[in-house]
Structure formats: structure tokens, C-alpha cells
Amino acid sequence: MRPLPRQRLLNAALAAAFGTASSLCSVSAFAQATAQPSGAADPTLPAITVNATTEESATGHVNGYLAKRSTAGSKTDTPIVETPQSISVITADRMDAIGATTVKDALGYTPGIAIAPFGADSRYDWIAIRGFDGYAPGFYLDGLPLRNNGTWGVWKTENYGSERIEVLRGPTSVLYGMASPGGVVNIASKLPTAEPLREIQLQYGNDARRQVAGDFSGALDAEGKVLYRITGVLRDAQLPGGSSRDDRTYIAPSITWKPSSDTTFTLLAQYQKNRAGAYSRIRPIEGSLKPTRIGTTIPSDLNVADPSFDHFNHDQKMIGYQLEHRFNDTFTVRQKLRYGKLEVDYRTLQSPSFAAMDPANALSPANYRYLNRGVFGSQESTTSLTMDNQLQADLRSGDWQHKVLVGLDYQRTRIDQYTYSSIVGAPLLDIQAPVYGGAIELPAPYVNGVNRLAQTGIYVQDQIKWGDRWSLTLGGRYDTAQSSNYSRFDGTTQRISEHKFTKRAGLVYLAPNGLAPYLSYSESFAPIGALDPATKTPFKPESGRQYEAGIRYQPPGGKSLYSAAIFDLRRKNYITYDASFMPRQTGEISVRGLELEATTELMPRLNLTASYAYTPRAIVTASSRVEEIGKQSMSVPRNRLSVWADYRFSNGLKVGVGARFNGSTHGDGEVVAPAKVPSYTLLDAMIGYDIDRWTLALNLRNLTNKAYVANCAYAYCYLGTQRTAVATATYRW
After folding, report:
1. Element (H or E) spanning 92, and its range?
2. What is the average pLDDT value for the chain, to the nearest integer?
3. Could you tell me if 25 and 32 are in contact, meaning their C-beta atoms sit under 8 angstroms apart?
């Protein structure tokens, strides 16, 4: 628990002595009941109203696991029950409880999300949302995009520096511009607080993980107009098997200035340095999911890359600000801006396949002992400038309320990329007696140039409330995007301009008993940035659209939120390649499903979070390759279920347990059909103790160290993450 402000400490003390805070009118009533004897001095005490609760911020810290407000679904401070689209919020307290050290760990108990489409991977937080890639074109940080271009220069986030992680499922382009049809992930940074916060955290875990972190915040002046916060992490660790290091340095200072009650200006910065290898668990389908023709398999703990060659060096810097000014009860303006620079130097050995040592004898054991490995590397430098300007007007006429949002956002990204790849160039690897090192030949690049993207979007949204029961959201947006690709191979530059209008509508009914059914329609788009070789004209932007119907239930005065949603989602106009490998804009994917989610305190100190996703349809419905139609593009299990519960005893002991079930699939593109990637269930656990100012916890993920195949794609399978154990000691004062 974080330190409580003085008023809340006073409320708690009064409630403990005299009952609930609501039964007390003011501290002066208590003073009157204990009046001094006649004749003594009787100064008049000012009345101090005692409040039982404090208003939750839509972006700030939440005590516990249940967030009731968010900006992710509207860009305004809106109750989640009034948002006509599926949204999940993972609070910092919940991340701590489940022992989440990465974004994908934090999303492991969220419906509709696959956190291991490429198995165990130290480089990125690969995820899929409702059957679509959720990592491209990038996550969001404080509502501004962390744009990547489908390359290996991808912005990273740090869980310890995050106040919450929000997932808005389904198309979101009216709010965020170009985006995946599956949805967006927004991370909210820890920002300065008026109440003092002082925290030191130590971690020790497997793979030689040693980490120290600190979080400090408070006021710099007596009036509380200038606030500060500084959050930092220093990690010294290794990748699984001790193959190479996995070190991180992270620091995020911020300062808030409040010259008046109507104006807030926050300056925030971030620096992150990662020095690591490149750990993944990729295997050929034959030898992992399926035994080889002679019945053997590749050892699950074998590093098929080369620790002496692999590295993933990643540096990023960001600086920006958030400004809000309220002119009066009607008009408020906001502006966010961020500049970032990212440098990546990455290389590895990959694409393992058996080397045919005895091609004349298909059943020779020698053919299943040595692995060929390709050489891959990329050096990238990315600069990014993003801005979002908003004018909000709160209007009222009788029983009608309008919250009108008019915005203009802009983003500009430049990526300088040098990337090479080959299927040869590395020594063979003996899977029975691996030896690393040796001469490795770097191939010539297949990408050497500069890509630029600039996008400007103008959007309008009206959140209309009629009385206390009906809420209607209408929105529209027009985007223009210009991209250019400069090639150092021939000195040419290709320029493409695209534009797209998207729209959104949703209706919510707010029943007095806490039920809130809703209907919604939303759209997305993504510029393709390529020319049709047949017509020499730019391809149209690909698009997405979704119909969704759902219901939420938030019992009045309780600490629970339940939700259910059904949806029909389509991705249209994406590029597919015909038999001659010519690109054609004929692709379409259809996904339909049901999602359930619950976050509740079943009884005092007993928390439960649960989610279920039923996806009976996630198939290609149109393609230039007939053999793809009717198959899954990205693997989506029919059933996915997760449950987490934890209990805190009155003596300070706390325990938690969770289970994550992932149903069987045929892999991306159904590459292993008619065989299946087996279903699997992973168990997680937590045990801890709170004593004085200390919070102690031991978290174990994949408690039983279950060996499993997370997914298969192309000619490979990806093994899942092995057991991890992290002990955490946090001291607050």
C-alpha cells in the first residue's frame, strides 16, 4: 500500500473510533462532544468535512486491482462503464501481485490477448489482440504513439515506471489514427504526486537476476505547486541458461508545475539502456512438435543461436510535456508532446534446420544431429516527434449533457535501417555436443536506407448523456499520411501520400442497479506505403471494422466490475501475394468471438480476476492465394481462460495462485495441420508478507516448469517460457 495523505489518515482514525466516516459530520462535532470545562478557553475550531472516499483519477494510481475510470477509450476522463467498447485496465498493484516484469506478463490474465505468439523471447513484448498483431504499429505511452515500422527498432517500456496498462480492444483509429484492427495498448507513466512517496525495491531471481529500483515523489515547495518524481531501475541479470547478459538501466524524472487550480504543466523524460543477448526458443517443426523420422527431438534447453555472436543493444531517450488549462466550467485545452530517439544494434543466428549429412539415406541418424543456422542482423536509428492537441467543451441543456472533444494530432518518424539476412554463413551446430564460436560471415544488406512517415489527424468526438441513463458516443476522424523510402542501393526515393476517414459510434444504457449494456461500431486503418506494381499507383490503406455488443455490471458502492462482449471484427484490403509473388490488395480476415472478464473483491482482502475468450471464427475469407482461404492467419485458440486469486491474512501473510489455459491450434497459417499445437495450462503462485514498512513477496510463473509449444509458424515452432522465480523486498517510508 502507498502512504496515505493526512486527510485519509484522519478519516481512518475517526472511523475506527466512532464508526464509518459517513456517520460523522465534521471534526467540530467531535470537539463539541468533548468540550472543555466551563470557564476554560473555548476557541472556535474550523469545521473539517470527513470524506469516506477520494475521487479516482483516470490516469493515476489505483489502490487495488479495480480501475473505474480511464482515458483510453475516449481521450477524456470517463467511467469505464460508460465506454462503449471493450477495455481492460491492469493497475500497478495488480502487476505487483502477479509478479509481472514485462508488458506481456501483465497482460497474461486479460481476455482476447495472446502473450506468446513467438514463445519465449527476450527481445520484445510480442502480443496479439483478437487475432491480430498488437505490437505493430506500436504501443502507446501516455496516449502518444511509440511508433515502429515493422522493423526491429521497437520502443521498450518498463513496468516499474508504469502506473497502469490499458487495453482498448477493437478498431481505434478515430482516437489514435493508424492502428491494428485488434486494438491498442496504452501505458500510463508514473507522474508526480502531492503526497510524499519514498520507495526502495530489491529483487533477486533465477538467471542471476539482481535488480534495485527506487520511486520518489512529493512537493518541492510549501504550497504544493511544484511536484517532482523520479523513478529508476538498475538490473544485472543473465538470459536463461546463463547464455549472455540481460542488463538494464532506466531512469524517468518528471516535474509538475501548478501555477493555479486551473493549469497543470508536467515535464517528463526517460532514459533506458539495455545490454543483452538475443534469446528465443525457436525450433524446426520436425524435431520439436513432431519427432524426426527416426524418433528424436531437439533438447528443449539447447541454445540454437550463439552466445558469443548474439547481442541486442538498445538505447532510447524521450522528453516531452503534458499541458492542461481549464478556462472555465465549459472549455478545457490540453496538449501533449514527446520527442524520442532510439538506437538498436542487433544480430543473431536463427532459422535452424537439420543439415542433410547423409542425403542418400533418409533414415540416417547423422541427418538429425546437426543444425544449419542463418545469420541475421539489423542496425537502426529512429527519431520520433508526436503531438496531440485537444479542446474539450462541456455543455449542458436541460437533461442533455455534451462532452465535445476536438483534436489535432501529428506524428513524424524517421528510421535509418541497415538489415542483413542469410540462410548460411554460420558453423553447423551439433545438438548432442554443441560448440559455440567460430567464423561467422556477415551477408550483404537487403535493406539499406531511410524511411520517413508523417501523419496528421483531425478528430471530433461528442459524448452525449441524456439524464442519468443514456450515453451516446459519436466520433469521426480524417487522416493524411505521407511516407518516403530512400534506398542507398540506387539512390532513389519513393514517395506515397494516403488519406482515410474513419468513424465510431456507441450507445450505453446505465441502469440504476449497476448494469450497463452497450452497442458500438468502430473502424481502423493502416497506411501500406507501397505502390501497386501493376498500376504504379499507391495501394489504398488497409482497413478494419467491428460491431460489438456487450454488458457491464458494476454493483453500486462495491469493488467489482464484470463485463461480457460479443464482436464481429474484419480486417480488409491487406496485401497478399499470388503464386507469382505479386502483391495484390485482396486480403480479408474475419474474427468473431465472446469475451468475459471479472475483477472483484469477493470478501474483504480476497481479490479475484478472471477472463475467458471464446473465438469460434478467426479465418482468412479473401486472398490472392486460394489455399489460404478458410484457414487462420494468426493462430487463435477456440478457448482461452485465466483465473487469479489472492488473499491477505490479518497477520500480514498473503498468498496468491493463478492458472492460464490456452487451447490447441494448428499454428499460424495452419502450418501443422492436420496435427495440432497442443493446449497447455500454466500455473502461477505468490507468497508474501507485509510487516511494518516492508513488503516481501516471492512470485513464480509457470510454477511446475511445464514444457510446452507456444505456437508454430512458417516452418518453425516456438517453445514457451520456462519457470521463473523472483523474490522482491520493498521498503516504503
Report:
1. helix 92-98
2. 91
3. no
In angstroms, the CA 63 to CA 61 distance is 7
pLDDT digits (tens, 9 = 90+) for 351-370: 999 999 999 999 999 999 99
CA–CA gap between residue 98 and residue 121 (Å, rounded): 19
Question: What is the CATH T-level fold of the domain 197-416+436-732, as seen in this structure?
Answer: Maltoporin; Chain A (2.40.170)
HSE-up of 600 (CA within 13 Å, CB side)? Answer: 16
Q: Are residues 716 and 189 in contact, defined by beta-carbon separation less than 8 angstroms?
A: no
CA 73 to CA 588: how far, in whole Å? 26
Report the alpha-carbon distance of residue 392 to residue 405 in Å, rounded. 5
Please state which of the ranges 16-20, 175-179, 403-407, 697-701 shows the lowest mean pLDDT.
Answer: 16-20
Over residues 19-66, the pLDDT tens digits come to: 333 333 333 333 333 333 333 334 333 343 333 344 678 888 999 999
How remote is the C-alpha of 692 from its chain's centroid? Answer: 33
20/18 Cα distance (integer angstroms): 7
Q: What local confidence, expressed as pLDDT, does residue 356 receive? A: 93
Decide if 164 contacts 493 (C-beta within 8 A). no
Give dist(CA 338, CA 373) in Å, integer. Answer: 40
Grid cell 461500431 in the structure block, residue: 521
Instruction: Give exposure, 186-217, as e/b (b: 16+ Cβ within 10 Å).
Output: bbbbbbbbebebebebebebebebebebebeb
What residues does each domain of the chain span? 1-54, 197-416+436-732
pLDDT value of residue 14: 33
Please provide the DSSP assignment of 372-440 as one string: EEEEEEEEEEEEEEEEEEEEEEEEEETTEEEEEEEEEEEEEEEEEEEEEEEEEES--EESSS----S--
The answer, yes or no, to whether residue 16 has pLDDT greater than 80, is no
CA distances from 476 to 81, 138, 143, 172, 461 (A): 22, 22, 18, 11, 7
Q: Is the dihedral of CA 387, 483, 576, 537 positive or negative?
A: positive
Rounded to 5 degrees, φ, ψ at 288 are -130, -75
In the block, residue with C-alpha cell 537476476? 209
- How far apart (Å, rounded) are the C-alpha atoms in residues 97 and 658? 11
How far apart, in whole angstroms, are the C-alpha atoms of residue 251 and residue 654? 30
**pLDDT surpasses 60 at 463:** yes
Q: Are 140 and 164 in contact (CB under 8 A)?
A: no
DSSP-derived pairing of the beta strands 724-732 and 445-466: unpaired
Please answer whether residues 566 and 578 qualify as being in contact, where contact means their C-beta atoms are separated by less than 8 angstroms: no
Mean pLDDT of 627-634: 94
Measured at the alpha carbon of residue 4, what is the angle toward residues 43 and 30, in degrees to the nearest 5? 30
Q: Is the pLDDT of residue 446 over 60?
A: yes
Task: Show the cell assigned to 432.
Answer: 548432442
DSSP code per residue over 284-352: ESBTTTB--TTS----TT---S-TTT-EEEEEEEEEEEEEEEE-SSSEEEEEEEEEEEEEEEEEEEEEE
Measured in degrees and rounded to the nearest 5, phi and psi for residue 441 equal: -95, 120
CB 239 within 8 A of CB 246: yes
Amino acid, res. 500: K
Report the predicted TM-score, pTM, of the whole model to 2 decimal places: 0.90
- CA separation, residue 210 to residues 158, 313, 348, 621, 721 (Å): 16, 19, 25, 49, 19
Amino acid at 577: Y
